[in-house]
Design brief:
Length: 318
């Protein structure tokens, strides 16, 4: 796969917004001047993730949307507030079948006039439940995600298990092998916070096999965008390196899944050690990483950490 010259990752939807964060050498934000300008709209935060990815090479441009946030409300509002035209998106990649990542999908399709190819795994449609800390089950964990509803609105589901090229220099990983011991998912569906799926008519542990990442090759390096990293952020980055044959990881953006209730701090420490070995250039843990784990990552990599919340655009060049 040939890399692009430049990528711009704009955080359309994320758990937080902060108008006081300053711009940096490679990041611009919807900051104080934007928020106080009466002619502009302010981006809003919600517990979800959507990243707009602009790829540039030669004189061409290509746009990928990675996830759609929890609601069309936030996705469409923030796109307008940040001057991003969702009509121009060439391809959508859904990381996995959880509502904080596909929740804005139907509203996005209704907003658009052109059909939209959608990379996602068939198991994203699997019925799911969550066991609450009280021991009861929460239904509706992936309510509303059906092929019928998507295709009725112009979405073209491209179901895949293997990696899929979704644009120039862009690869959706497909299923991510679970190789790292400390990232193995829990197997007991009776414990609090257990993820459960219904397969073959039976309830069983949900390892979220549909979980995938988006990998952008920029020059001879790669940028990895993760949704929730249910497969484990280290498994995900290593899969991206294997698929592209590239060892230089320029950046990792997205949920690192270290903030989920019950996650031991030792998992964060082990993750930091692996990230150090991989020598990741820029770390942007967001969303389900959790504030505590994100601050530990910041302390471990003060020069490589970027606090990336709603409204930020990060440029990475070859
Ligand atoms: Fe998530
Ligand atoms: Fe998730």
């Amino acid at each position: 796969m040939q890399g692009v010259r430049r990528v711009v990752v704009t955080t359309l939807v994320e758990n937080s917004v902060d108008m006081l964060l300053a711009d940096g050498p490679n990041v611009t934000r919807a900051g104080l001047a934007h928020h106080f300008d009466p002619k502009k709209q302010n981006p809003i935060a919600e517990n979800g993730l959507a990243l707009h990815v602009l790829l540039e090479w030669d004189r061409y441009r290509y746009r990928i949307l990675f996830d759609t946030g929890m609601s069309g409300l936030a996705l469409l509002h923030n796109a307008a507030a940040l001057d991003i035209d969702l009509q121009q998106v060439d391809h959508l990649v859904i990381s996995h079948g959880h509502p904080d990542h596909y929740g804005g999908l139907l509203a996005l399709l209704e907003h658009r006039s052109a059909p939209l190819p959608i990379s996602m795994h068939d198991e994203a449609f699997t019925p799911r439940y969550l066991r609450l800390a009280s021991g009861q089950l929460a239904p509706y964990y992936n309510h509303g995600l059906t092929r019928r509803e998507i295709e009725a609105r112009g979405g073209c589901v491209v179901g895949h298990d293997d990696a899929l090229e979704v644009g120039p220099g862009a690869l959706a990983t497909g299923r991510i092998p679970r190789l790292v011991g400390f990232e193995a998912p829990p197997q007991d569906i009776s414990t609090p916070n257990a993820l459960i799926q219904v397969s073959g008519g039976r309830m069983c542990p949900d390892a979220v096999p549909d979980d995938q990442a988006l990998v952008i090759q920029v020059g001879d390096g790669i940028v990895v965008l993760t949704g929730c990293s249910h497969a484990g952020v280290i498994n995900t980055v290593r899969r991206a390196m294997d698929l592209t044959g590239r060892q230089r990881v320029l950046g990792v953006f997205g949920g690192f899944h270290l903030g989920f209730p019950g996650t031991p701090e030792s998992k964060t420490d082990a993750t930091i050690e692996e990230l150090r070995q991989i020598d990741v250039g820029m770390l942007c843990p967001m969303h389900c990483t959790g504030m505590v784990a994100a601050m530990r990552i910041r302390a471990a990599f003060p020069d490589r950490f970027l606090l990336n919340c709603t409204g930020a655009s990060v440029v990475i060049e070859a």
